[in-house]
Amino acid sequence: MVNAKSNIEAPHFLSHITGSFAMPAAENPTVAMVEAAYRHHGLNWRYLNCEVSPERLGDAVRGAKAMGWEGFNCSIPHKITVIDFLDELAVSAEIIGAVNTVVRRDSRFIGENTDGRGFVEGLRGITEPAGKSVVIFGAGGAARAVAVEMALAGATRVRVVNRSRARGEELARLVTEKTSAQGEYLPWTSNFRVPEDTDIAINNTSVGLYPNVDERLDVDMDSLRPHMVVADGIPNPPRTPWIREAEARGCRVMDGLAMLVHQGVLAIRYWTGIDPEKDVMRRALAEALRL
Ligand code: NDP
């Protein structure tokens, strides 16, 4: 006699949990992008956008571990301080000195940084970093991640242009000491001219981010040449003055939405093992940001 129950699939009401710890958290659109990918691939996974204060970060990480979370993203202001609560760091996260993605391996939390690698993956759709001479504007968290990953991906020269000299010099030194690329600091002089031998010019400052959408980099845009690839880390809005004016000068461009999507792709790949559909993620982001 057939046991009717044996034909019924076992109940499966337990989801795999991932999420984000940041403060503020309300304007972070990542949840829309990641959950769209989970839905598209039919995964019983969730992504919870959590506002966590700096004093509570340790409790949040311990809580995530206690609840068996598969991993989580960290954003402002936790990318550096979260390291104290993790079991291990991946090589590039260690060099960058910051973590944006935590991955559970058995019962250990491993810190990864997918910001820079996401940037590199996106860029590979346009050009290969190996052997290239790169100029990066900015020396904050995003610039550090991009500079280190471009160098690890084989860029030969990384010039850092930053408003505050100390931060810029420190990043240039980091590149030279920790990778095989040559790091160099260039002071940000007024109406800065991008050196003619540059292959890839990247804005990793916060200039152009919503709501300051008309803010421009203090750069002589006529120094951008058609052979250069020009990229921006600003995801909102993606068509910054930097991107628009570079395009008008015949440069190939990559916007900050591409960086955001690709760092999310890497995080989902780490957590779930699947390679998520990028277009679904980009569409979900664009919709969430009302672009
Ligand atoms: P930080 O605060 O760590 O760094 C900000 C950088 O911008 C510094 O180098 C700062 O220079 C520079 N800067 C700020 N205002 C100006 C200005 N008016 N003129 C020149 N330089 C300026 O921020 P993050 O590095 O974490 O983030 C930077 C941007 O990258 C943010 O807008 C963020 O949205 C974006 N981002 C995008 C990601 C993506 O996936 N697309 C991922 C992570 C970040 P100084 O040192 O002199 O103060």
Describe the model.
There is one protein chain. This protein is of the alpha/beta class. The protein folds into 2 domains: 16-113 and 259-288, 3-Layer(aba) Sandwich (Rossmann fold), CATH 3.40.50; 117-254, NAD(P)-binding Rossmann-like Domain (Rossmann fold, 3-Layer(aba) Sandwich). It contains 9 helices and 12 strands. The chain has helices at 30-40, 57-66, 91-96, 115-124, 141-152, 165-178, 241-248, 256-272, 278-288; strands at 16-22, 45-51, 71-74, 88-89, 101-105, 108-112, 133-137, 157-162, 182-187, 200-203, 229-232, 252-254. The strands form 2 sheets. It has a 6-stranded mixed β-sheet with strand order 2-1-3-5-6-4, with helices on both faces. Strands 9-8-7-10-11-12 form a 6-stranded parallel β-sheet, with helices on both faces. Helix 5 runs parallel beside helix 6 (165-178). The radius of gyration is 20 Å and the shape is globular. The protein starts with 15 loop residues before the first strand and ends with a helix. Mean pLDDT is 95; it is low at 1-6. Bound molecules: NADPH dihydro-nicotinamide-adenine-dinucleotide phosphate (NDP). Residues 115, 138-143, 162-164, 167, 204-207, 209, 233-235, 256, 259-260, 263 line the site of NADPH dihydro-nicotinamide-adenine-dinucleotide phosphate (NDP).
